[in-house]
Task: structure prediction
Amino acid sequence: MDTVQTRKERVLLFYGFSRLDDILKKGNVWYVNHYETYFDKVYVIYLSGGRHEPMTKDNTTLVSLGTGSKALNLVVAPFRLYRFARSLGSCSYLTCDQVFSWWTSLLLVSLLGARIVLMPVCIPKEIYARTGRSLTSVLPIWLERLFIRWSYVLASRVVTGKNIGVYIEWLSSMDSVRTKLQIVDVLVEELPSTDFFQTLSGYRDECNRLFSGRESEHILLYVGRLHREKLVADLIHVLRIIVQAGLNARLVLIGDGEEKTGLQTLADQLDVRERVVFAGSKKSAELVDYYKSADVFLSTLTGTSLREAALCGLPVVAYRIDWVRGILKDEENALLAENGDIEMLAKQAMRVLADSQIRGNIARNLQSLAETIWTPDALAVSLEKTFAFEASDVSGCFINK
Result:
């Protein structure tokens, strides 16, 4: 009698030395559901922070392995991660952690023969130059640089997206990375959550706008964490310049974070407090209404939210910084200012508000680009390319289905 050979489940273990609580506050935590395009089960492991009940949506589970003590978390992270991975028989390993993945991955590599995929989501040297601080804000920059070098040496593959030119250039310049680099059409980290796409696909223009009744008031929108490195304080200054120019404008800040109190104080000092709305964190599905109701999206340092604004057809005014330099073109699909040039950022925002032709052109061009490059359509192929190098190591690596 012939036996039917069943396919074994593909399982992804995506991990990093971060806190689940912090990620939940960002609001875009379930973008990881996109990994289910290729994997049968996805486990996202947070190695810092305190204890937290696992959270599951569809076939993706968020797991905190933290103990509550940051120092102790770092010490025990490799052992806890190894024990969890061994219990799953996980096949594929992915991390975005450039600083600590050399340490947290040690037992995975030495005892399980894991081949680690490292996917950077920032360029450390640019952050060092811009802020003068390390990524951890605790370690000195020289030590972080050393740890980052070790993480890239340990990784079996480094992956980035074909549309992130500045990342390709930076990664290709490193000897330890050049032969490991895999460039794919789209990264999961480039995409908004599945909930966002579902809401956007069902959106109707006749829906009630959030700011109806304020037709004479311009709505400036920011979506992201209220942390110092995000440069949100610059937007309070931008608002004051716009108001002093005689425009009736309101700044809506969606997100939360440690800098909220400081931003409220700054708004009071600049006499624009009544024109700043601290809307708090919103779920991904709720954001579409905000994007569709605003007049311009202001980006000092944003990632997913800028892409969401683009997909919603909202004109973008941004600092020419990080990955933005390779995607946004001044006067073509956005209006840009040099990093830290608050006066120019305000000037560009006022141009968008005053000139309907510029506003329409840059919004249409960016939306057209967004619908081409930030789409789940190419995701399955990209994920297969990312993890195809493991094909020769599949024995004993999958869970029987």
Residues 211-373 form a domain with the Rossmann fold fold (CATH 3.40.50.2000).
